[in-house]
Design brief:
Length: about 120
C-alpha cells in the first residue's frame, strides 16, 4: 500500500493550493484519511481529517480557510487551502487508516508548502 501526495509548492500569502493524496495497492477498506503538517523545528500536527462517512475535523487555525474532502471511488483525499498565510508553511503529510489483513496506519511521503509574505 502506498500513499502518493502531490500539489505542494510556493505561493504568496493570500493564495491557494490544492493537495491530493491517492492510495494504491491491494487493500479492502480505507477508514479515516487526513492531512498533517510539520513546520521546521516543530512537531507534526493534525490539520484536518475526514471519516469514510464524511465527518470532518479541522485545527482551529485553518478552519474557514481549508477544506478537506475525499473521493472513496478514487481512494483519494484532498485539501483545498485558501487564504494561505506564512505560518501555513511546512511539509504536509497525508495519512490513512487502511485495512489489508488488519487495520494499519499509512503515511504519504510529504509535500512541501511554502507561503511567502
Amino acid at each position: 500500500v502506498q500513499l502518493q501526495a502531490s500539489g505542494g509548492g510556493l505561493v504568496q500569502a493570500g493564495g491557494s493550493l490544492r493537495l491530493s493524496c491517492a492510495a494504491s495497492g491491494t487493500f479492502s477498506y480505507i477508514s479515516g484519511m487526513g492531512w498533517y503538517r510539520q513546520a521546521p523545528g516543530s512537531q507534526r500536527e493534525l490539520v484536518a481529517d475526514i471519516s469514510r462517512g464524511g465527518s470532518i475535523n479541522y485545527m482551529d487555525s485553518v478552519r474557514g480557510r481549508f477544506t478537506i474532502s475525499r473521493d472513496n471511488g478514487k481512494n483519494t483525499v484532498y485539501l483545498q487551502m485558501n487564504s494561505l498565510k506564512p505560518e501555513d508553511t511546512g511539509v504536509y503529510f497525508c495519512n490513512a487508516e487502511i485495512r489489508r489483513n488488519y487495520m494499519s496506519t499509512y503515511w504519504g511521503q510529504g509535500t512541501q508548502v511554502t507561503v511567502s509574505s
